[in-house]
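Dissemination and training. As part of the outreach component of the grant, students in the summer workshop were shown how a complex can be specified as a set of sequence lines and then modelled as a single object. The example used during the hands-on session is reproduced here so that future cohorts can follow it. Participants entered these lines:
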Amino acid sequence: MSDLFLLCWEFFKAGLFAVGGGLATLPFIHEMARNYDWFTEADVANMIAVSESTPGPMGVNMATFAGYKTYGIPGALATTFSVVLPSYIVIIVIAKFLDKFSENPHVIDAFYGLRPAVCGVVLSAWLSIFRIAVLTLPRFQETGAWADLVNPAAAVIFVLLFVLSSRFKRVPPVAFIASGALLGILFL
Amino acid sequence: MTTYYQLFASFFKIGSIMFGGGYAMLPVLEHEVVDRRGWLTGEELIDLFALAQCTPGVIAVNVATHTGYKKRGVVGAAFSTLGVITPSLIIITIIAAVLNNVADIPAVQSALAGIRVAACALMINTMVKMWKNGIKDWLGIVIFAVISLLAVFTDVSTVWLVLGALLTGILSFHSKREAEK
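and obtained this result:
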């Protein structure tokens, strides 16, 4: 039970400190994978894929997935409510008391500092996921041969999907995720 | 008069058809909240969107909470917020449950390995967007570099990194310097 409470607390923190939308929740969930045995880093990568290919805000999708992975349906409910509770409180307080919040120079300055930092923490989480998705570090450490550093099939799929997804921006992410699944079955 | 049910239903619809996040969901919001319901004007929605990006949490949730609060107060906000998260709860729970049951099948493991590679590739596009949006000058690059190094090579909690950057931003008096230019 206390573990469920801890899970809620971690997601409450994520909801409170994840600023800017999109992948902003990711570094917090990734940190949980490192600090607790609720889910693994590979699970986090799966969460991103599922969240990108299903409707709904990414932050909420990832929270629901992580909660389910940890404690089933009660966990999913707990994490989803915990991740939105800070928004609910903060938005109502701002709407009630702070007129022109987003025009306040201190708020603008704070976000001037925050946005690059969010890029930094997301990059760090991305590197960890890249490490397990494309690199084969355990084998490299064993043999020391540079050829064993990268999983060649994964690297080719990675480059292919990156080039296609950045060229064809109107194609929905779910198409690339599905192609990834298919190529995975064939070559990984 | 806007009912609680309308707030829940409209945001439920938004939650079940929007993908990803950020500006991609603006047309979906506009169609439902501005054109169909008339709860906000187009301008109000843009302002709200800017505000939602400057407040913690998921942007779509912030917009939902704010619209619900504006129309029907604290309870209205609860209904619109519940509306926008309920589709995720249902869809993701089903997918996670199915994945849990089939995860041991070798073909599924290969598919998941491929999916992780795809997610990794797609993230780069999102990160490029975040970079263009967030890093405007040399101080931005410095903050990015310092936070990246700390995040990759130390165990400092993300919360502290975010708070540190927030404080740096406030102390930079960026908007004052811009105004003096």
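Residues 30 and 42 of chain B are 7 Å apart (CA to CA). Students were then asked to discuss how this feature might be tested experimentally.
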